[in-house]
Amino acid sequence: MDELDLAPKLAVLKALAADEHVTRVAERVGLPQPTVSRWIAELGEQLGAPLLVKTGRRVRLTRTGRLLAEAATRSLTALEPGLREVEEELDPEKGRVVLGFLHMLGRAIVPELVRGYRAEHPHVRFGLVQNARQAVVDKLLSGEIDLALVAPPPEGPEFESVVVFEQPLIVVVPAGHRLESRRAVRIGDLADEDLITLEPGYGLRQITDDMCAAAGVTPRYVFECQEIETVRGLVAHGLGVALLTHAEFAPPPGLRELSLTPRTGRIFGLTWLRDNPLPPAVRAFRDHALRTHGVQR
């Protein structure tokens, strides 16, 4: 029995259970009366037992018809919440946006983006997923999230990105370090330094690896962390140096921030899958980000 063919017929049978009058049911479901009669007859033939018997100008469900109508009612009732969710998903004013982003963006950047959009679309709901860069990108590829806000934006033909903002990269050293008096530092100056960084899979780690490779420097990583503030704390206590962005608030005591030359920025991009159709609410949020913050790459 074809499930796609069965569903509309069960909906008609459910209506007949409530009003045992074929003509009125046909009008209610928007079908010709002969179609309703034929569908019910076909269901009975497939089951090997009639579902209706005529009683004058009305019809009455047989025991088999009643049992099937009750099952149809339970099944269709169970579907109703899902159908409402689908309707909301397709409504740009009531849909849901699942945004994945780096932990550090939860303090200001993401709230700012979301606030601006919610001011125009107050009924749209958000799912916010925070993780390391590669984990966020993997969730985008698997369909767990709609959009990814990461640095650097992933490259490849399957991705499309909007640059949302850029942060200058700096070198942080402990107070009293040999480089402290420098106005600017090159990556090559760090060749003999103990480096403190994030674990592989984090965007800042990828940037550090790439910049060291480009400068011909083999990095000597002594600490691999999961939080940028941990990196700052270790540097402040004299345990190494690091490549970071400026502290959002006052850096911890004992830390010195030095400019990097040539100037290099950490680019944050809003990314989606190029060939994956975005639901209306997600598309509207992406367009809001592009309109208010983005530069197309």
Structure description:
The chain has 297 residues and is an alpha/beta fold. The protein folds into three domains: 3-84, Winged helix-like DNA-binding domain superfamily/Winged helix DNA-binding domain (Arc Repressor Mutant, subunit A); 96-160 and 273-296, 3-Layer(aba) Sandwich (D-Maltodextrin-Binding Protein, domain 2), CATH 3.40.190.10; 164-266, Periplasmic binding protein-like II (D-Maltodextrin-Binding Protein, domain 2, 3-Layer(aba) Sandwich), CATH 3.40.190.10. 41% of the residues lie in helices and 25% in strands. It contains nine helices and 13 strands. Strands 3, 4, 5, 6, 7, 10, 11, 12 and 13 form a nine-stranded mixed sheet that branches. Helix 5 (109-120) links the parallel strand 3 and strand 4. Helix 1 (3-18) crosses helix 4 and helix 2 crosses helix 3. The mean pLDDT is 88.
